[in-house]
Amino acid sequence: MPPHPAIEQIKQILGSKGWADEDGMLAPHLVDSRGSYQGRCLGLALPATTEEVSRIVTLCAHHRIPIVPQGGNTGRVGGATPDETGTALLINLSRMNNILEIDPEGHAITVEAGCILQNIQQAAADADRFFPLSLGAEGSCQIGGNLASNAGGINVLRYGNTRDLVLGLEAVMPDGRVMNALTALRKDNTGYDLKHLLIGSEGTLGIITKAVLRLFPRPTSQATAFCALDSLDSAVDLLGRARADSGDAVSSFELIPARAVEFASRHVPNTRPPLDDIPDWCVLLEFSGSGAAPSTNKDLESFLEGAFEAGLITDAMIAQNEGQRSDLWRLREAIVAAQKPEGASIKHDISVPVQAVPAFIRQANEAVTEACPGIRPYPFGHVGDGNIHYNLSQPEGMAPAAFKAREEDLHRIVYDITQSLGGSISAEHGIGRKKRDDLARYGDPVSLDLMRAIKKALDPDNIMNPGILLPTETNDNDKKPIRENRP
Ligand SMILES: Cc1cc2nc3c(=O)[nH]c(=O)nc-3n(C[C@H](O)[C@H](O)[C@H](O)COP(=O)(O)OP(=O)(O)OC[C@H]3O[C@@H](n4cnc5c(N)ncnc54)[C@H](O)[C@@H]3O)c2cc1C
């Protein structure tokens, strides 16, 4: 196929550092982080400034060239991978990685969208401030990708999702114009808050190029414990009690099943069970505070004594130093990798109201076991936010392909239960390409119509990340939402 006539102009705008089209350079950008999607593209644009992004997008709009925005390419739903046609331009923001301004007094930091999340955390710490967004991919994901997917992570309970951490944004819109909402104002009631349209839009409404983010006082004390729960139901009671007793100093509350401790100890170096006896369900609990907030080991110890007397926990281990705290968090982070050597897996990222988490896990475990005897449920995650990564490992001895062939059935079972409990089929990973049809099935039809109307208004030629997030109209007309069928 001859190169698209616009490519020469794009190359001229970007210069030699800003363009790649050799197979070796392109390869890692053409496959998603789970290895589920493999695409092709016209080339990889690596702009260095907002102006360059704007000029390329203007050209693409003129020629109706589809654009796929890409950050660190760590997303879990295939949203940053171009399709197989090879007609799209990939725009990766990794060269736009400057921290532009830090204002400790104003508790704000201004960054380019290609900044790696960990570098923003470090810049905040260097200024004696705290940027709370934290997740397993923080060493390689970019803030633009975090914003576009409204990422969650381990500190949502205390500080909110990425959406809650943003003061202002700059973005290049699908016609190439630059929306300048790059403000550090805490109050600005001047009409629609357009930054929130871009946040969570998964690259379908524009390319985020800069952001002003909220900073917080640096926690001066932290206390971390691994707790053995008396039962799954105790998790919810323990959380409520921990929040009330600590003056809401709970920053993380992560559910860890015995199976995850077992798999991690077996497969991931330097991880071991923190307690001699691991019951079916455990929680990694962290208090953190500044100033007089009660978050020392002594406060945690007295809280845990009360929880023990109330019959919520049967044992606990409090980290006595930073090394022990890192060991506990290493175990938590190892859960995902530890599942892989156990064979094929099927994954869900769901949320339900916090108090419904035990019912969800019980109902789902029962239903998937009935559908696929021997299946090994592997639910873990941010129970404090009602967000469970409801992963499933194949039965021992089953052929991986035979298990994967059950994927759609098992998704239906899990998502039907999620919906019956008032939950969401995507708590923090987004929709991307992976869950587009599921959104058609489970999403509210009016909300979907409104989303399409917004997309049409801002991107009438559908050049921004086409095929991502929004189901095609026939999809959801064909599949009548289950919600409407319920009595
Ligand atoms: C080990 C691991 C742990 C993870 N843990 C969590 C977790 O705890 N919580 C959680 O929420 N997620 C988690 N994730 C997934 C998470 O969404 C991503 O890691 C991160 O938020 C995506 O950032 P990225 O820069 O890699 O974006 P990408 O993967 O490159 O892109 C994600 C989406 O954003 C769009 N996009 C990227 N940059 C821009 C931009 N500048 N403007 C407009 N659109 C853009 C893309 O088109 C795509 O749709 C994890 C992933 C991994 C690999």
Automatic annotation (TrEMBL):
Cofactor(s) of this protein: FAD
Keyword terms: FAD, Flavoprotein
Gene Ontology terms describing biological process: respiratory electron transport chain
Domain of life: Bacteria
InterPro entries for the chain: FAD-bd_oxidored_4_C (IPR004113), FAD-bd_PCMH (IPR016166), FAD-bd_PCMH-like_sf (IPR036318), FAD-bd_PCMH_sub1 (IPR016167), FAD-bd_PCMH_sub2 (IPR016169), FAD-linked_Oxase-like_C (IPR016164), FAD-oxidored/transferase_4 (IPR051264), Oxid_FAD_bind_N (IPR006094)
Domain FAD-binding PCMH-type: start-end pairs: 37-218
This protein's name: 4-phosphoerythronate dehydrogenase (FAD-dependent)
